[in-house]
Amino acid sequence: MLDTDSIITGLKELGVVAGDKILVHSSMAAIGKVDGGADAVIDALISAVGPDGMIVVPTFACVAPYDRRTSKTPLGAVSDKLWRCPGAVRSLHPTHSVAAIGKGAEELIRDHEKAPTAYAEGTPYHKLTQIGGKILLLGVDQDRNTTLHTVESIVHSPYLKNIQGTYVDDELQQITIPIADMAGPHRDFIGLDHMFRERGIMRTGRIGGAVCRLIEAGPMLQLSLEAFQKDPAAVLCDNPECKDCVIQRGLIKKARLKNEDFILAARASDISEHWDEILLAIRGEGIEALELSASEYLRFGKQLEDEKIKVVSICASATDAIGVAAARRLGVPLTMLVSSKEGFKVACETQASGVKTLMINAGMPSSFYADLYGDIPSVPGFGFSPAQFAVAGEKAFLQVFYRGTLRKHTEFFYVDDGTFDGHPTLPGKGNGEVKEIISMLRCRSFAGPLVIRSHTAGVTGFRKTAAAFWDLLDNM
Fold first, then answer.
1. What phi, psi does 357 have (nearest 5°)?
2. Tens digits of residue pLDDT in 291-349
3. What does the pLDDT read at residue 62?
4. FRET label pair with 18: which of 91, 166, 275, 448, CA 20 to 30 Å apart?
5. Which sign, positive or negative, has the C-alpha torsion 232, 237, 240, 241?
6. Domains (range + CATH), the chain
7. Cα dihedral 314, 316, 321, 323 in deg (nearest 10)
8. pLDDT of 80 over the 70 cut
């Protein structure tokens, strides 16, 4: 059984010195049996930092409204005991309060509730990084390290949310405040552990049964910011079955698309027959637009509206009365494959009937489609499929797009690649010169849809195709 003196010894061996200002995340279960329980751990912490030091603990409350005088915290016995200690002060923040005891405690917690966020500038978490503070993980891992949310908040990660929180002030009035950049569900903070260790800003040791980490808060913040500069998803896991991180990664991509003129879309039939799978797949890629068949529109109409998913086109033949009616009702193009003069005639007739029509090249050479357009004043727009020009033996950029005849009519571009001998490939891996065309479209501020096409049916195939598209964009 541990006692106060043995815990003090363990803290000093870990690197705690007099005057330290330490934010402590702890687990009594990990430490094991302690003579005096949480009170003894608190006494040891206070003794180890001395009269010039400070101990801080998180004291979040899970029941609203938060009242710093009465609200219990579910964050363990040490946190729930320390805020009640004589001399301890507790911040007013409704969701991410802290309690502190020692020199500088009042200044640390002051105006926490007035900061625009829960963890960034103006909060105790950020202040501690600026005054040489440390973070002690006492029997817990990096996933309990709240200060890592500070980094997300400073860079305004696109997946953070804005919420409201309510607290009871010292005059017993309930105050509701906005809280920006609130962290959501799953994180992979554990993945940063090796970086802190390798860069020499974290020391590890053991107190009782608890594996302990003592981290320099300021350098930790800086290293984490560097990680975010390299990868905005630095603290999200890459498990494709983790719905939380799939969606959060998608929000990063969605924010990136705000800088583009084009509309990124997908074809629902490439992904799944089930709406939940389609929605998660496109949200994971930052996509909020779909090309649908008529039957898909009839099946998913309500969900599309509820989720605010834009329909960019109905993919159907002119003889599909339901598809034509859906395109007319939505005011979106009817997209159809054309590989003959008769098919082009039908597309023209559909266009003349008042339904916006786009023809997609289907294996014929570019001269065939260029001749169809000729000087006809009212003709369907063009849906450019580079894979289909590759099938026709043409280089889709140098021999087709670059020459300009079909480029002038292009209203949709399909992120669709393949080889000259007809084998479909991931974007950028075939003969369709997809990267070159996308680059030129961006140079021209193309505002139409770029529709990702996956030739491997299913969610996994779609994700691989989308990943290839994002890789192309990353290298432009």
1. -130, 140
2. 999 999 999 999 999 999 999 999 999 999 999 999 999 999 999 999 999 999 999 99
3. 84
4. 91
5. negative
6. 4-230 (no CATH), 260-474 (3.20.20.150)
7. -20
8. yes
Q: Give the integer Cα–Cα distance in Å for 28 and 46.
A: 17
C-alpha to C-alpha distances, 76 to 28, 38, 62, 72, 188, nearest whole angstrom: 7, 9, 13, 10, 22
pLDDT in tens, 234-262: 999 999 999 999 999 999 999 999 999 99
Dihedral of the CA atoms 204, 207, 210, 211 (nearest 10)? 10
- Measured distance CA(425)–CA(418) in Å, rounded: 5
pTM score, whole prediction: 0.94
CB 151 within 8 A of CB 221: yes
The token duo for 463 is 């994700």
Checking if the pLDDT of 376 tops 80, the result is no
R_g of the chain computed on alpha carbons: 30
Q: CA dist 248 to 120, 161, 359, Å?
A: 20, 11, 36
Mean pLDDT calculated for residue range 124-136 = 98
What is the β-pairing status of strands 98-102 and 89-90? Answer: antiparallel
Q: How confident is the model at residue 402 (pLDDT cuts 50, 70, 90)?
A: very high
Which residues face 165 on adjacent strands?
Answer: 177
pLDDT digits (tens, 9 = 90+) for 187-202: 999 999 999 999 999 9
